[in-house]
Amino acid sequence: MPRKRKVEDQWMPQRVYKGRSAYEFKPVGGGTVRLCDVDAKQSEVWAAYEKYMAIANNKHTVQHLVETFFDSADFRDLSLHTRKDYQKYSKKVLSAFGKMDPNTVTPVHVRKFMDILGQKSPVQANRHKAFLSRVFRWAYERGKVQRNPCQGVKQFKEKARDRYIEDYEYDAVYQRACPVVKAAMEISYLCMARKADVVKLHQSQLLKDGIFIQQGKTGKKQIKEWGPRLRKAVSTANEINPDVFSMFVLHQKNGHPFAVASFDQRWRKAIIKAREETQLPLDFTFHDIKAKGISDFEGTVSEKQQASGHKTESQVRVYDRKVAVVPTVESKK
């Protein structure tokens, strides 16, 4: 049985004792943890004890903060794409900061973390910092932390992608792609849609007036009008495992939609085959197909914005990559 405390020490937390120079906590497993100076007030002793226990129980760490954020309504309100990205970014963030007290994380720590990631990928370093900042901003607004250590930490400069796919490059890959990739390329191009919105396209989204698409990133709802080429793309999709009933336009033999990794593998095969047979570099991504669609869409920036579903004209300009043909002095005469 533990020794009975002296009357004057009965106010102390359990397993806390007054040492020569400090109040100390004696964990069950042995050892001694210094809590505060011996001349501290009773309230200060209790505060130090509660802080230590919170950390010991993993309730006052960045790990716990991130887990609480992932369980919040704010996180659930984010798009599926963003939620998946945040969960992916959390792995490296928690590897670096997980066991730290959130209030001890400083801009210097964040800068060092970014510099290490930035050696391989400055863009990824920026994305990880943005995630960490989102967590701390959420926590600060709810009184869980004293500050956001990401504020004032400069991001790496990013160069906007300006790769425009020429028609002959698009055709080179399209002609050598499997039906799954062919259908996805055409739907992405004609509808100016993201890969994630195309790969998970549901049969119920094929309406009388066109294809209903709610963008996973912006939540924008649109019906993309039918045209001969778009109808042909859906017919190509129907040729995929025709004897299999599926609720998805692009589906596997078991009727399930393609996972991103599985679809990406098919895309890479088409690109590699096209490179080998044409000797063209074909250094573009599937995401660049959406940009080609916006670039080829005939209309003003405002009209492109309405058709593509972007929130601002500045976002549209990022995707509008075709080099403009402008008059010269003589052609204007």
Automatic annotation (TrEMBL):
Record Gene3D superfamilies: 1.10.150.130, Intergrase catalytic core
GO annotation terms (biological process): DNA integration; DNA recombination
Native source organism of the sequence: Alteromonas portus
Protein name, per record: Integrase
Keyword tags: DNA integration, DNA recombination, DNA-binding
Keyword DNA-binding: yes
InterPro entries xrefs: CB, DNA_brk_join_enz, Integrase-like_cat_sf, Integrase_catalytic, Integrase_recombinase_N, Phage_int_M, Phage_Integrase
Core-binding (CB) domain mapped to chain residues: 60-140
